[in-house]
Amino acid sequence: MSEIIEGRNAVLEMLRSGQGLQRVLLARGVKPNPTLDEIRRLANAASVRVVDVDRTELDRLSARGAHQGVAAEVAPFRFAALSDVLKRTAGKDTSLIVVLDHVTDPGNFGAVVRSVEVAGGDAVIVAKDRSASVTAVVHKSSAGATVHLPIVRVVNIRQTLQELKDAGFWVVGASEKAEQLAWDAPLEGRIALVMGAEGSGLSRVVQEACDFLVRLPVRGQVDSLNVAQATTVLAFEWVRRLAR
Questions:
Q1: Whose CA, among 72, 101, 167, 206, lies 20 to 30 Å from 154?
Q2: Could you give the CA distance from residue 62 to residue 68 in angstroms, rounded to a whole number?
Q3: pTM of the predicted protein model
Protein backbone atom coordinates (compact mmCIF):
# COMPACT_ATOMS: atom_id res chain seq x y z
CA MET A 1 0.00 0.00 0.00
CA SER A 2 1.38 3.40 -0.95
CA GLU A 3 0.95 6.90 0.42
CA ILE A 4 0.86 10.24 -1.38
CA ILE A 5 3.21 13.12 -0.72
CA GLU A 6 2.57 16.40 -2.45
CA GLY A 7 4.26 19.71 -3.08
CA ARG A 8 7.50 20.54 -4.85
CA ASN A 9 9.80 20.76 -1.83
CA ALA A 10 8.47 17.59 -0.23
CA VAL A 11 8.91 15.53 -3.39
CA LEU A 12 12.30 17.07 -4.16
CA GLU A 13 13.67 16.35 -0.67
CA MET A 14 12.41 12.78 -0.87
CA LEU A 15 14.31 12.31 -4.14
CA ARG A 16 17.44 13.97 -2.79
CA SER A 17 17.43 11.70 0.25
CA GLY A 18 17.54 8.60 -1.92
CA GLN A 19 14.43 7.15 -0.33
CA GLY A 20 12.47 5.08 -2.76
CA LEU A 21 9.58 6.67 -4.60
CA GLN A 22 7.25 4.46 -6.57
CA ARG A 23 6.38 7.13 -9.13
CA VAL A 24 6.15 10.89 -9.55
CA LEU A 25 2.99 12.55 -10.86
CA LEU A 26 3.24 15.88 -12.67
CA ALA A 27 0.33 18.00 -13.84
CA ARG A 28 0.06 18.37 -17.60
CA GLY A 29 0.69 21.89 -18.77
CA VAL A 30 2.46 23.03 -15.60
CA LYS A 31 4.77 25.97 -16.29
CA PRO A 32 8.50 25.21 -16.53
CA ASN A 33 10.22 25.65 -13.20
CA PRO A 34 13.77 24.88 -11.98
CA THR A 35 12.42 22.82 -9.09
CA LEU A 36 10.26 20.72 -11.39
CA ASP A 37 13.20 20.28 -13.75
CA GLU A 38 15.28 19.04 -10.82
CA ILE A 39 12.50 16.64 -9.81
CA ARG A 40 12.44 15.19 -13.31
CA ARG A 41 16.22 14.89 -13.42
CA LEU A 42 16.53 13.16 -10.04
CA ALA A 43 13.60 10.87 -10.76
CA ASN A 44 15.14 9.79 -14.07
CA ALA A 45 18.52 9.23 -12.40
CA ALA A 46 16.87 7.03 -9.77
CA SER A 47 14.77 5.18 -12.37
CA VAL A 48 11.58 6.49 -10.80
CA ARG A 49 8.77 6.68 -13.33
CA VAL A 50 7.45 10.19 -14.04
CA VAL A 51 3.83 10.28 -15.19
CA ASP A 52 2.04 13.32 -16.63
CA VAL A 53 -1.54 13.45 -15.38
CA ASP A 54 -4.46 15.86 -15.53
CA ARG A 55 -4.46 18.42 -12.76
CA THR A 56 -7.86 17.10 -11.69
CA GLU A 57 -6.19 13.81 -10.80
CA LEU A 58 -3.75 15.61 -8.51
CA ASP A 59 -6.64 17.57 -7.04
CA ARG A 60 -8.35 14.26 -6.24
CA LEU A 61 -5.26 12.85 -4.56
CA SER A 62 -4.36 16.05 -2.71
CA ALA A 63 -5.22 16.38 0.98
CA ARG A 64 -5.66 20.17 0.81
CA GLY A 65 -5.47 21.03 -2.86
CA ALA A 66 -1.99 22.54 -2.52
CA HIS A 67 0.04 20.07 -4.55
CA GLN A 68 1.76 22.75 -6.71
CA GLY A 69 1.43 20.48 -9.73
CA VAL A 70 3.43 17.57 -8.33
CA ALA A 71 2.86 14.54 -6.14
CA ALA A 72 4.53 11.21 -5.59
CA GLU A 73 3.62 7.74 -4.42
CA VAL A 74 5.78 6.41 -1.58
CA ALA A 75 5.83 3.46 0.77
CA PRO A 76 4.10 4.02 4.14
CA PHE A 77 6.10 6.23 6.52
CA ARG A 78 8.45 4.40 8.89
CA PHE A 79 8.75 5.85 12.38
CA ALA A 80 12.09 5.78 14.17
CA ALA A 81 12.64 3.89 17.40
CA LEU A 82 13.27 5.88 20.58
CA SER A 83 16.09 3.50 21.49
CA ASP A 84 17.90 4.35 18.23
CA VAL A 85 17.53 8.10 18.86
CA LEU A 86 18.91 7.72 22.39
CA LYS A 87 21.87 5.68 21.11
CA ARG A 88 22.62 8.30 18.46
CA THR A 89 22.50 11.16 20.97
CA ALA A 90 24.36 9.39 23.77
CA GLY A 91 27.50 11.29 24.73
CA LYS A 92 26.52 14.47 22.90
CA ASP A 93 26.91 17.61 24.99
CA THR A 94 24.10 19.33 23.13
CA SER A 95 20.94 17.78 21.76
CA LEU A 96 17.41 18.97 21.12
CA ILE A 97 14.42 16.65 21.04
CA VAL A 98 10.90 18.04 20.76
CA VAL A 99 8.01 16.10 22.28
CA LEU A 100 4.47 16.90 21.11
CA ASP A 101 1.79 16.28 23.71
CA HIS A 102 -1.13 15.22 21.48
CA VAL A 103 -0.82 17.85 18.75
CA THR A 104 -3.57 17.02 16.27
CA ASP A 105 -3.22 19.53 13.44
CA PRO A 106 -1.06 18.06 10.64
CA GLY A 107 -0.02 21.51 9.41
CA ASN A 108 1.34 22.39 12.84
CA PHE A 109 3.00 18.99 13.11
CA GLY A 110 4.80 19.43 9.80
CA ALA A 111 5.85 22.98 10.65
CA VAL A 112 7.31 21.75 13.95
CA VAL A 113 9.31 19.05 12.13
CA ARG A 114 10.65 21.67 9.72
CA SER A 115 11.75 24.02 12.50
CA VAL A 116 13.40 21.29 14.57
CA GLU A 117 15.29 19.96 11.55
CA VAL A 118 16.47 23.43 10.52
CA ALA A 119 17.58 24.11 14.12
CA GLY A 120 19.69 20.95 14.10
CA GLY A 121 17.48 18.98 16.48
CA ASP A 122 17.73 15.23 16.78
CA ALA A 123 14.10 14.06 16.75
CA VAL A 124 10.43 14.83 17.19
CA ILE A 125 8.40 12.51 19.41
CA VAL A 126 4.62 12.16 19.14
CA ALA A 127 1.96 10.11 20.89
CA LYS A 128 0.51 7.11 19.08
CA ASP A 129 -3.08 8.05 19.89
CA ARG A 130 -4.90 11.39 19.65
CA SER A 131 -2.13 12.92 17.56
CA ALA A 132 -1.66 13.84 13.93
CA SER A 133 -0.05 11.09 11.89
CA VAL A 134 2.53 11.57 9.14
CA THR A 135 0.42 12.38 6.10
CA ALA A 136 0.80 14.25 2.83
CA VAL A 137 -0.06 17.47 4.67
CA VAL A 138 2.73 16.86 7.18
CA HIS A 139 5.28 16.09 4.46
CA LYS A 140 4.33 19.26 2.58
CA SER A 141 4.19 21.60 5.59
CA SER A 142 7.58 20.28 6.72
CA ALA A 143 9.01 21.23 3.29
CA GLY A 144 10.47 17.73 3.09
CA ALA A 145 12.09 17.77 6.55
CA THR A 146 10.29 14.52 7.41
CA VAL A 147 12.88 12.82 5.21
CA HIS A 148 15.81 14.06 7.29
CA LEU A 149 14.56 14.15 10.89
CA PRO A 150 13.68 11.02 12.91
CA ILE A 151 10.08 10.99 14.07
CA VAL A 152 9.29 8.67 16.96
CA ARG A 153 5.81 7.48 17.90
CA VAL A 154 5.29 6.34 21.50
CA VAL A 155 2.42 4.91 23.52
CA ASN A 156 3.01 6.86 26.74
CA ILE A 157 4.38 10.42 26.75
CA ARG A 158 5.02 10.54 30.49
CA GLN A 159 6.99 7.30 30.45
CA THR A 160 8.97 8.59 27.47
CA LEU A 161 9.88 11.76 29.36
CA GLN A 162 11.32 9.62 32.15
CA GLU A 163 13.40 7.71 29.60
CA LEU A 164 14.71 11.01 28.27
CA LYS A 165 15.62 12.11 31.81
CA ASP A 166 17.42 8.83 32.39
CA ALA A 167 19.37 9.52 29.18
CA GLY A 168 20.56 12.88 30.52
CA PHE A 169 18.01 15.28 29.04
CA TRP A 170 16.43 18.16 30.91
CA VAL A 171 12.70 18.00 30.22
CA VAL A 172 11.31 21.50 29.63
CA GLY A 173 7.60 22.14 29.21
CA ALA A 174 6.25 25.19 27.39
CA SER A 175 3.28 26.76 29.15
CA GLU A 176 1.82 30.26 28.98
CA LYS A 177 1.16 29.93 32.73
CA ALA A 178 4.81 29.28 33.62
CA GLU A 179 6.50 31.75 35.94
CA GLN A 180 9.91 31.53 34.27
CA LEU A 181 10.63 33.29 30.98
CA ALA A 182 12.39 31.21 28.34
CA TRP A 183 15.16 33.84 28.09
CA ASP A 184 16.06 33.27 31.77
CA ALA A 185 15.79 29.48 31.78
CA PRO A 186 18.69 27.03 31.29
CA LEU A 187 17.82 26.11 27.70
CA GLU A 188 21.21 24.82 26.70
CA GLY A 189 22.81 21.41 26.50
CA ARG A 190 20.61 18.33 26.29
CA ILE A 191 17.02 19.54 26.15
CA ALA A 192 13.75 17.71 25.60
CA LEU A 193 11.25 20.46 24.80
CA VAL A 194 7.63 19.47 25.43
CA MET A 195 4.94 21.35 23.53
CA GLY A 196 1.23 21.07 24.30
CA ALA A 197 -1.81 20.49 22.15
CA GLU A 198 -3.58 23.26 20.30
CA GLY A 199 -5.93 25.03 22.67
CA SER A 200 -5.52 22.87 25.77
CA GLY A 201 -1.73 23.04 26.07
CA LEU A 202 0.19 20.54 28.19
CA SER A 203 -1.81 17.96 30.07
CA ARG A 204 -1.53 17.95 33.86
CA VAL A 205 0.38 14.65 34.03
CA VAL A 206 2.85 15.84 31.40
CA GLN A 207 3.40 19.14 33.20
CA GLU A 208 4.14 17.24 36.40
CA ALA A 209 6.72 15.13 34.56
CA CYS A 210 8.68 18.18 33.35
CA ASP A 211 11.76 19.39 35.21
CA PHE A 212 10.58 22.98 34.76
CA LEU A 213 8.21 25.11 32.69
CA VAL A 214 8.93 28.16 30.57
CA ARG A 215 6.87 30.76 28.75
CA LEU A 216 7.43 33.32 26.04
CA PRO A 217 6.84 36.99 26.86
CA VAL A 218 3.73 38.46 25.25
CA ARG A 219 3.21 42.18 24.63
CA GLY A 220 0.20 42.11 22.32
CA GLN A 221 -3.46 41.40 22.92
CA VAL A 222 -3.36 37.75 21.78
CA ASP A 223 -2.05 35.70 24.69
CA SER A 224 0.05 33.09 22.87
CA LEU A 225 1.58 31.78 19.65
CA ASN A 226 0.39 28.56 18.10
CA VAL A 227 2.38 25.41 18.85
CA ALA A 228 4.44 25.53 15.65
CA GLN A 229 5.42 29.17 16.07
CA ALA A 230 6.28 28.71 19.74
CA THR A 231 8.38 25.66 18.96
CA THR A 232 10.34 27.64 16.39
CA VAL A 233 11.10 30.44 18.86
CA LEU A 234 12.18 28.06 21.62
CA ALA A 235 14.21 25.83 19.31
CA PHE A 236 16.16 28.81 18.05
CA GLU A 237 16.68 30.09 21.57
CA TRP A 238 18.44 26.75 22.11
CA VAL A 239 20.44 27.38 18.92
CA ARG A 240 21.37 30.87 20.12
CA ARG A 241 22.81 29.42 23.31
CA LEU A 242 25.14 27.22 21.24
CA ALA A 243 26.96 30.31 20.01
CA ARG A 244 27.85 31.48 23.50
A1: 72
A2: 10
A3: 0.81
Residues sharing a CB contact under 8 Å with residue 80, sequence separation 6 or more, in sequence order? 123, 150, 151, 152
**Alpha carbon separation from 171 to 29, 71, 100, 162, 163 (Å, rounded):** 51, 38, 12, 9, 10
DSSP character string of the chain: --EEEESHHHHHHHHHHTPPEEEEEEETTPPP-HHHHHHHHHHHHTT-EEEEE-HHHHHHH-SSS--TTEEEEEPPP-PBPHHHHHHHHTT-S-EEEEEEES---HHHHHHHHHHHHHTT--EEEEESSSS----HHHHHHTTTGGGTS-EEEES-HHHHHHHHHHTT-EEEEE-TT-SSBGGGS---SEEEEEEEBTTTBS-HHHHHHSSEEEB----SSS----HHHHHHHHHHHHHHHHT-
Of the candidates 146, 158, 217, the one whose C-alpha atom is nearest the C-alpha of residue 192 is: 158
- Buried-state track 193-207, b at ≥16 Cβ within 10 A, e below 16: bbbbbeeebbeeebb
